[in-house]
Amino acid sequence: MSSSFLAAAFLLLAALSCHCHVARGWCGLGVNYGTVADDLPTAARSVEILRAAGAGAVKICDGNADILRALAGTGIPVSVMVPNEAIPSLAASPAAGGRVGGR
């Protein structure tokens, strides 16, 4: 597959997952950033695409260090998902500082 096709597919999926976070004081494109696919762009290129698309927030399904580094300093809010069974131990951890929780 060509990179332009993948970029177009990525933007289409991003548009389909659009949602608005009015409660947090901003409204924009919310993107679920998945990594289960072939021939994905690099993390740095993905962030360029996210910024060009006007992403207001990103949700990633794991703590991929390359993705987190690429998003660092962009000002884009990031949510990192964890498996349900890990939530109780994370919530009890003093390192979480009360930041682990539900909606």
Q: How many individual helices?
A: 4
Number of strands: 3
Instruction: Please tell me the overall pLDDT.
Output: 78
Largest sheet: 3 strands, parallel
Query: Whole-number radius of gyration?
Result: 15 Å
Find the structural class using helix and strand composition. Answer: alpha/beta
Number of domains: 1
Q: Give, in spatial order, the strands making up the sheet with the most strands.
A: 1-2-3
Family: Belongs to the glycosyl hydrolase 17 family.
GO molecular function: hydrolase activity, hydrolyzing O-glycosyl compounds
Protein name: Glucan endo-1,3-beta-D-glucosidase
Keywords: Glycosidase, Hydrolase, Signal
Task: Explain how this protein is built.
With 103 residues, this protein is of the alpha/beta class. The protein has one domain. Helices cover 36% and strands 14% of the residues. It contains 4 helices and 3 strands, in the order αβαβαβα. It has a 3-stranded parallel sheet with strand order 1-2-3. The longest helix is centred in the first third of the chain and has 14 residues, at 3-16.
Structure in a nutshell:
This protein has 103 residues and is α/β, with parallel strands linked by helices. The chain contains four helices and three strands; from the N terminus they run αβαβαβα. The protein is elongated.
